[in-house]
Amino acid sequence: MSPEQLLPINGVELCVQTFGNDSDPAILLIHGASASMLWWEEELCELLAAGGRYVIRFDNRDTGRSTYSPPGAPDYAHSDLVADAVGVLDALGIASAHVVGRSMSGGTALALAVDYPDRVTTVTFVTTTTGEVEMGDADFPPEPDYSDEDQVVDYLVAAMAAYSGSSPHFDPDATRALVVRDLARGGPAASTMTNHYLMDFDAPSNGGFGDIAVPTLVVQGELDPVFTPPHGDALVAAVPGARLLVLPATGHDVPPPVWDLFVGALLEHTA
């Protein structure tokens, strides 16, 4: 595991961290809305690196240690986040990577595959959607006072419990510890929790899921209450040749009890 680096990319600073040997095939992990790179857990990244992959995780804008916009006023669009991902590859001298997009960043992975096809070796969509299937109805808590850190911590733990879909794998203590660590790294919680939902979703520009021309893996949580199993089925149907991996007894997250299954499938997919 390398130290975290703050890199100047596209006029902002992005926090980037790598695992493994840079001579191995690169896997670029991109998390979803409001989630810093910490939600790709160190231990998970290390398992992938031990399988012979150069693993890259980074904080999107408005998360972690990367650049923040004022709450409620993101000064970027989705296409900027896509360009940021390309910029991370450029900064690390990587010509092409296996791209893994999770939740909201499934859209980023799609845009990379069709707008920057020469930079993408394979695509993996994790707990995400084509946007054409009705979302599930998870029981989320009411928004907190973002100026009150204790309220924010309680809210995020409760939100992650809701995202888990009542999975037996959900660990509230480990989640609380991760939330506290994440908030200690970041800027305004109000920016993190709102700005990604307010940006202009203007990417991709060169096609859709049917235009993806690289091997594609779809990872679906069996109990995902937000992007329910029909979302995974729709993705597989939309992308030519896509394969489906269902994580048993798992919600919208990728918890440690399914890491062996997830890592094995991802290493096979990126071989």
SSE series: EEEHEHEHEHHHEHEH
Radius of gyration: 17 Å
Low-confidence spans: pLDDT under 50, at least 5 residues?
none
Could you give the order of strands across the largest sheet? 1-2-4-3-5-6-7-8
Report the count of strand segments.
8
**What general form does the structure show?**
globular
What is the mean pLDDT?
98
CATH class: Alpha Beta
Q: List the total number of helices.
A: 8
Explain what this protein looks like in three dimensions.
The protein is built from 8 helices and 8 strands. It has 271 residues and is of the alpha/beta class. It has a single domain, classed as Alpha/Beta hydrolase fold, catalytic domain (Rossmann fold, 3-Layer(aba) Sandwich). The chain has an 8-stranded mixed sheet, with helices on both faces. Helix 2 crosses helix 3 and helix 4 packs across helix 5. The protein is globular, with a radius of gyration of 17 Å. 50% of the residues are buried. The mean pLDDT is 98.
List the helices and strands and how they pair.
Blueprint: E1 5-9, E2 12-19, E3 26-30, H1 42-50, E4 54-58, H2 78-91, E5 97-102, H3 106-115, E6 120-126, H4 149-163, H5 172-185, H6 189-198, E7 216-221, H7 229-238, E8 243-247, H8 259-269
Parallel strand pairs: 3-4, 3-5, 5-6, 6-7, 7-8
Antiparallel strand pairs: 1-2, 2-4
Helix pairs in contact: 2-3, 4-5
Tags for this entry?
globular, Rossmann fold, 271 residues, 8 helices
